């Protein structure tokens, strides 16, 4: 489905774009235009073809059909360097930074300026710092990337692109790890660049962002362009139905309103570095507790400590009234506490391994109680989890070949197959499309119905409000209050979060 050019300021024209990998077709006859100084939102579920289109435009992938023009000339980049030299830059959804290099070195890697035959570190540090300040990241440019949190690493990726002086920037989920303030700063920068004639292709699953930042919208489904809109002020319900190809009557499942006895108690726990201080709360059987707060509030650090991944300097964690010692993640696992981490690829999965191998990792006590691992038993166990959690993939398939939503389901399946008592999900739908989000939300509700105590940490406030029986709000590492479902709304949460 090709969009016909109707604007004299077209900078990128895509016509009849197609891509096959052997017998598998991932793109069919995709066509659209990008105009000078605009943001074109490219929407679709995971696997719809958005990343493939972006990769073709940016020179990472060669198409099997179709043509492109850039600034009126044929555009067929053979590599990312070709695209960059033409003025097209891509920020990947998955960060590709070098952890043992500094922020400045990452920003200018491959194009480090020199002076008298040596790297001009003063120059790269100064120029990197300028971009970091524009993005509101108050960190020294000499800081090693490995010492940054996920949100800060994402901002480094964005800073890297902004130094390229590209005329078309493709943003693939650039705000997935950013909070509201950081997102606002990025959007202001985009508006500045738009005024200078820079164009954007903007991919995001946060549909509220699209209405704020985009000028037009193109929707992909199953590798085909199914809709275009000349304005971004389109009802979310319309966009979601175009993306998934079916009516989506509801996003969040109905919660049971009668949680049981207190299962998890946290009493006055603090971290050694003061990231969180004297935090207390409880979670009942069958309850979903949401944890909200702006980036830097200490949410991830808090749940990692409860899961035994980070130390606790003071305070007590109890399971059914019994204090437990948490010195290692295995201690938490032994007590029935599991954590689905925010970085599924870096902390939750081994990408080259199969779905079966990943699911089996923490479940060998069930799969091979005698100590002898039978591949048949591993695959049988995995197929059961694949069916239960609706994973679109085969047991023998590598996890790296799955969409983000299905990868997240594998992490959840791996953890839940242990039959835990407490389940903690940190940013469970980050970078996942709306269709897959609804499936994850159903999983969360099902865990609560099975009597587990569920904790959900999310930067998406609508997600927290839609899923939780109660919402605890953190600000600067302090519990500012716990809101009952009937009292929890955006205003009430943000008032506490900004205290």
TrEMBL record:
Keywords: ATP-binding, Cell membrane, Membrane, Nucleotide-binding, Repeat, Sugar transport, Translocase, Transport
Occurrences of domain ABC transporter (ranges): 12-247, 261-499
Primary localization: membrane
Lineage: Bacteria, Pseudomonadati, Pseudomonadota, Alphaproteobacteria, Hyphomicrobiales
Protein name per its UniProtKB record: Monosaccharide ABC transporter ATP-binding protein, CUT2 family
SUPFAM superfamilies referenced in this protein's UniProt entry, alphabetically: P-loop containing nucleoside triphosphate hydrolases
MF terms in GO: ATP binding; ATP hydrolysis activity
Location of this chain's protein in the cell: Cell membrane
Family statement drawn from the similarity comment of this UniProt entry: Belongs to the ABC transporter superfamily.
Organism this protein belongs to: Consotaella salsifontis
Topology class, membrane: Peripheral membrane protein
GO cellular component: plasma membrane
């Amino acid at each position: 489905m090709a969009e016909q050019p109707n604007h004299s300021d077209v900078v990128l024209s895509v016509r009849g774009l197609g891509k096959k990998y052997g017998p598998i077709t991932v793109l069919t006859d995709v066509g659209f235009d990008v105009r000078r100084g605009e943001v074109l939102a490219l929407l679709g579920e995971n696997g719809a073809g958005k990343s493939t289109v972006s990769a073709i435009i940016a020179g990472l992938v060669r198409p099997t059909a179709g043509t492109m023009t850039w600034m009126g000339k044929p555009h067929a980049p053979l590599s990312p360097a070709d695209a960059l030299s033409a003025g097209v830059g891509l920020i990947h959804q998955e960060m590709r930074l070098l952890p043992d290099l500094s922020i400045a070195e990452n920003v200018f890697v491959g194009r480090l300026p020199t002076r008298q035959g040596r790297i001009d570190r003063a120059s790269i540090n100064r120029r990197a710092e300028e971009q970091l300040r524009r993005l509101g990241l108050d960190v020294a440019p000499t800081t090693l990337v490995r010492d940054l949190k996920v949100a800060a690493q994402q901002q480094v990726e964005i800073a890297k692109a902004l130094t390229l002086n590209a005329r078309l920037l493709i943003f693939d989920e650039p705000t997935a790890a950013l909070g509201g303030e950081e997102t606002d700063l990025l959007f202001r920068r985009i508006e500045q660049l738009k005024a200078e004639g820079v164009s954007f292709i903007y991919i995001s699953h946060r549909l509220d962002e699209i209405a704020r930042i985009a000028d037009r919208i193109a929707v992909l489904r199953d590798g085909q362009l199914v809709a275009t809109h000349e304005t971004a002020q389109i009802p979310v319900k319309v966009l979601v139905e175009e993306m998934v190809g079916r009516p989506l009557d509801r996003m969040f499942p109905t919660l049971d309103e009668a949680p049981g006895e207190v299962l998890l108690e946290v009493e006055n726990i603090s971290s050694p570095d003061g990231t969180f201080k004297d935090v207390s709360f409880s979670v009942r059987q069958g309850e979903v507790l949401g944890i909200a707060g702006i980036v830097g509030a200490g949410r991830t650090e808090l749940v990692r400590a409860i899961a035994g991944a980070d130390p606790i300097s003071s305070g007590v964690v109890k399971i059914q009234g019994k204090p437990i010692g948490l010195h290692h993640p295995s201690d938490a696992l032994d007590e029935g506490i599991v954590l689905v981490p925010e970085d599924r690829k870096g902390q939750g999965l081994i990408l080259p391994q199969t779905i079966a191998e990943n699911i089996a990792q923490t479940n060998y006590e069930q799969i091979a109680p005698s100590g002898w691992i039978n591949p048949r038993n591993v695959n049988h166990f995995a197929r059961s989890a694949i069916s239960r959690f609706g994973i679109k993939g085969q047991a023998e398939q590598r996890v790296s070949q799955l969409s983000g939503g299905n990868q997240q389901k594998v992490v959840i399946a791996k953890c839940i197959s242990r039959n835990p008592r407490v389940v903690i999900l940190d940013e469970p739908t980050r970078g996942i499309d709306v269709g897959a989000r609804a499936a994850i939300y159903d999983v969360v509700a099902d865990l609560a119905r099975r009597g587990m105590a569920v904790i959900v940490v999310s930067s998406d406030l609508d997600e927290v409000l839609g899923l939780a029986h109660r919402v605890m709000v953190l600000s600067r590492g302090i519990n500012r209050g716990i809101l009952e479902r009937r009292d929890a709304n955006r205003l009430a949460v943000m008032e506490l979060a900004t205290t």
